[in-house]
Amino acid sequence: MVKLLSILLLAAGFLAAQTLEGVVTDVVSSAGIPGVRVALSQGDKTPYVAVTDSEGRFRFSELREGDYSVRYSATRYFSPSVPGDTLQVRIRAGGLPVRIERRMIPLSRIAGRVIDGSGDPVAKARVELTTGSAFWQAETDAKGNFDMPSVIPAALPYTLSVAPPLAGKPPAPDPDTHEPRAWVRSFYPNAGFEEQAIPIALHAGEDLPGLELKLLAAPVHAVRGVLLNPNGDPVAKVAVALWEPGPRRNAFVQAVSNPDGVFELPSVPDGEWRLSAESDRALAEQWITIKGRDLSALKLRLTPPFTVSGKVIVETREGMPVPVPPRVTLIKQHNGKILLQGQSIVEADGATDGGFRFELYPGSYRVIPGPPPPGFYVESVRAGETPVLEELELSAGSPGLTIVYKSNGGTVRGAVEKCGTGQVWLIPQQGPPPRNYFAACNTEGRFEFTAVRPGDYYAVAVPGYELWPGGVNAAILQRAARLTVRPNETTGLDLTLSALR
């Protein structure tokens, strides 16, 4: 009897077990990708792991009924802009095998060398590739060569630049004026200012070797001033640094303030700079512009941190459980470029009542609401009663922040003829807050967006290799359908696949 019971229990277990199988493909070639690590997990349990075969296929068998998360990772590939790198699947006992597909974009490569005005290679130069808030860095070797083998391709043009080595011999004085010069950041191929640079377009899987950047020498000037504490008294023996705009990890130049608080930064070329100092939980920041002459008599004042409070409101329907309030992130920026120095990124978890607090220094910040709970969308972000669109200036006395999530979003579903590995973009015609939605077509060419913020949208279907260009451009407007999403309603939509270039 015991033996019979064991056999019956074993048979029941096999009946409850299920199979999950799938394929991972390259969005450009549509070929299967071998060697992709696929992790299948439930909560905090140890995940099941499979590796794709030579055709990009994988299989999990004898799975128990329940909800699973699927994650993908591969060398020289990344996931396109569909909702996160995690796919949720539901396994049901006794059903047919579950089949899923994932498309990944091949990374790009950019390589070349850096030379000086005489054509000699420059070692230990810092090469940077930037677009928006994304950036890559590399240092040149003894022969001036650099290599960035894993760059995410982007529809936005990249800017390639090179900064001089942190230590090195300065260039010769100007041959005409005999004034001193310094090596300065130079932009591809040999421009002294970013607006003069030739942008670089990187398509998925593209290899751009052999690029050459020329490090330039430019006239320099001095920056002089005095460092003061919050009471207006001079501050001695504190480092004062000068930074270029953007995500720079190293100061261009720095000096220590004298006993009387006076500082001098020599050899500063023309351009916009951020002057900063930090001491005893106080920060001083000031943006300055150098134009052909020295800058003197600056007063750089240290300021203590201040507190900004706020609240996350998650509105629910009657009888619906209230989700945990999402985390809030602030990113320090200047003219749309992230700043990496000091306290550049701060995060706060909401309390059970949704309240949160940040301790900050004055500056411009971008407010990033946490991902909405399932079934919700971000309805608004406000500072006091003012909608927050882009950067927000925060200082002592700034109004509190309020982030509202709602659950009455609409649904958009439809089909794309011959979608294949394509994707659909759903783009608000106007903010706030600017939130785009991305979805991949399934094997039948269908797509669906849920919990969409009510409003007017553009919708466009594009090949899987297309990357979000950072904003609505003429190519999108020419191809986009226009629709209105209403609360708690479903909107049907059929689209035609069309490349943007």
Automatic annotation (TrEMBL):
SUPFAM superfamilies assigned to the protein according to its UniProt record, in alphabetical order: Carboxypeptidase regulatory domain-like, Hypothetical protein PA1324, Starch-binding domain-like
Gene3D superfamilies cross-referenced by the UniProt entry: Immunoglobulins
Molecular function terms from GO: carbohydrate binding
The UniProt record lists the keyword Coiled coil: no
UniProt source species: Solibacter usitatus (strain Ellin6076)
Keyword Transferase (UniProt): no
Signal peptide bounds: 1-17
Descriptive protein name: Cna B domain protein
Record-linked InterPro entries: Carb-bd-like_fold, CarboxyPept-like_regulatory, Ig-like_fold, SDr/BOS_complex
Record-linked Pfam families: CarboxypepD_reg
Record keywords: Signal
